[in-house]
TrEMBL record:
Binding site for heme: C461
Keywords of the record: Heme, Iron, Membrane, Metal-binding, Monooxygenase, Oxidoreductase, Transmembrane, Transmembrane helix
GO molecular function, one term: iron ion binding
InterPro entries found in the cross-reference section: Cyt_P450, Cyt_P450_CS, Cyt_P450_E_grp-IV, Cyt_P450_sf
Cofactors: heme
Entry's transmembrane regions: 6-24
Protein name: Cytochrome P450
Species of origin: Tetrapyrgos nigripes
Membership in a protein family: Belongs to the cytochrome P450 family.
Length: 521
């Protein structure tokens, strides 16, 4: 019989062997990238143990690299591996146009979010729900807009009841609940989208996915298959989701089998769209309750996280604006709604609102690095620099979007920066503004070499058109029904919180709301 001491020696031996193997592999990876300049520790031992520097100093390290190697590239040691940061526009274009089998978005995302364990393999092996978001959801924005606007009004009424007196609300938590309800009005409809447990499920699952991925990535990759299942939020989340949606999905599939896809009163929602998009040859494998639940949970992660971060940051900026800026925005909103009603067309005519939102995204964003890819083969940039297969590469979105060479007064918040850029490019006079519909070049949905909030190329966020329309509706509802300010009435925007390269609005900040004193009837 093996005693505890022997087991201890065995485990210590295994652990020691692994540490040696991990260290040697680290040195091999470092050697392969020796031609790339390093930010942070670069010695044999210091770089191995210096990986934790990036957890607390990501912003400073990215800024240092951007300034020391302008128009070039550099590498930083993260928790799990080296990441090569690209700042040159031509190199960024090389990444954008590279095929998936050369520079893979899917593999980079799979590793960053530990998708095998946090989201389920099926969502990236068979990503037809992404096509649903990119095409079907986008095509249905106008048709379902009244439902979105109705849910926003209802959610605000429940979460922030209009009151003549100023009242404080925890901004990020309140926003997440409103956006979860709004998004799921399209995904699963009434009454489920308003169920408190369903709302909590999606918010908690979103948070747990990011936490679990972070914790798994702390461990060496060889241990992920052991640690991943232990930290996975999926089993518990699926169990809760099944209580809310299983019968709905089963009934939907049963009616589809009986009547086809055009039966009367078939809901025009995400569940129907996903069922319609399942490839014919995969019907037996993927047409089941659990697979649909995984896709609902997965799509909620992106919808809740990005939109909640963006709207909270927008609120923080709105709360410190002068009455003159708020009047300009409100007048634009009232004019568009008077002419087009609460519709998608009205949102498209809120060009200054779009500019305000895009400027917030430029100033803050949600990630210090964007456009992350994994080199699937040795990859040579147009300048001749070669990265070995397995290299992770990214663009320093946060510091790039604050570059004085890209934006005049880049560190200054200019609410109508992009509106003015669009107007100037069109050679517009003030008299012509009222009939001007604008171009898409400087709109929030349009990626560019200087703006990466929604990514770039074919992997640009598939839900960005819905997200921007939702954000505009949220902003319009806020300004037309409430006065807002930050608690304590400071005149500067609260500093965002960095965790490694993720950027979040400070969750401790409270925003004061009261019923708008000059609400237009």
């Amino acid at each position: 019989m093996i005693d505890l001491q022997s087991i201890g020696y065995l485990l210590a031996g295994i652990g020691g062997t692994y540490l040696v193997f991990s260290f040697l592999r680290e040195q091999i990876d470092t050697y392969k990238l020796r031609h790339i300049p390093t930010i942070g520790p670069k010695g044999l031992l210091s770089s191995y143990f210096g990986r934790f520097q990036f957890v607390k100093r990501a912003k400073d390290m990215l800024q240092e690299g951007y300034e020391r190697y302008p128009g070039g590239l550099f590498k930083i040691r993260t928790l799990d591996q080296w990441i090569v940061i690209v700042t040159n526009d031509n190199m960024i274009h090389d990444i954008r146009k590279a095929p998936e089998n050369m520079m893979s978005f899917d593999f980079a995302t799979r590793e960053s979010f530990q998708q095998d364990h946090t989201m389920g393999k099926t969502v990236y092996l068979h990503p037809h729900h992404v096509d649903v978001v990119r095409t079907t959801l986008t095509r249905n924005i106008a048709a379902r807009f009244s439902d979105v606007q109705d849910e926003i009004a209802s959610a605000f009424g429940d979460e922030i009841p209009p009151d003549a007196e100023w009242k404080p609300y925890p901004a990020l938590n309140t926003v997440m609940r409103i956006i979860c309800r709004t998004t799921n009005r399209l995904f699963v409809g009434l009454p489920v989208c308003r169920d408190p447990d369903y709302i909590n499920l999606n918010i908690e699952h979103t948070i747990l996915v990011f936490k679990s991925a972070f914790l798994i990535n702390i461990f060496p990759s060889a241990l992920h298959q052991i640690i991943g299942p232990l930290l996975s939020p999926l089993p518990a989340s699926l169990k809760r989701a099944r209580k809310h949606l299983a019968k709905m999905i089963e009934d939907r599939m049963e009616k589809d089998d009986q009547y086809g896809r055009d039966w009367d009163d078939r809901p025009n929602d995400f569940i129907s769209w996903v069922l319609d998009e399942i490839p014919q040859e995969k019907q037996k494998e993927l047409r089941n309750v659990e697979d649909i639940l995984l896709r609902v949970l997965h799509t909620n992660i992106g919808a809740i996280h990005t939109t909640s971060m963006a709207f909270t940051n927008i609120l923080y900026h709105l709360a410190i604006q002068s009455p003159e800026i708020l009047d300009i925005l409100r007048n634009e909103m009232e004019s568009a709604i008077d002419q087009y009603g609460w519709t998608k067309d009205a949102m498209s005519h809120m060009r200054r609102t779009d500019s305000f939102m895009k400027e917030v995204a430029r100033m803050v964003g949600t990630n210090g690095t964007v456009v992350e890819r994994m080199a699937m083969k040795d990859f040579t940039f147009s300048d001749g620099t070669t990265l070995p297969a397995g290299s992770r590469v990214a663009v320093p979105g946060f510091v790039l979007q604050r570059d004085e060479n890209r934006y005049q007064d880049a560190d200054k918040f200019k609410p109508f920066r992009f509106y003015d850029m669009d107007r100037d490019a069109a050679g517009l006079t003030e008299d012509a503004e009222s009939t001007w519909t604008g171009s898409i070049k400087h709109q929030m949905t349009t990626p560019s070499p200087n703006y990466f909030f929604f990514g770039t190329g074919k992997h640009a966020c598939p839900g960005r058109f819905f997200a921007v329309n939702e954000l505009k509706t949220l902003v319009a509802h806020t300004l037309l029904h409430y006065d807002i300010k930050l608690e304590g009435d400071p005149k500067s925007v609260p500093a965002p919180v960095w965790l490694i390269r993720d950027i979040s609005p400070d969750a401790n900040i409270r925003v004061m709301f009261r019923k708008r004193q000059r609400l237009k009837e």
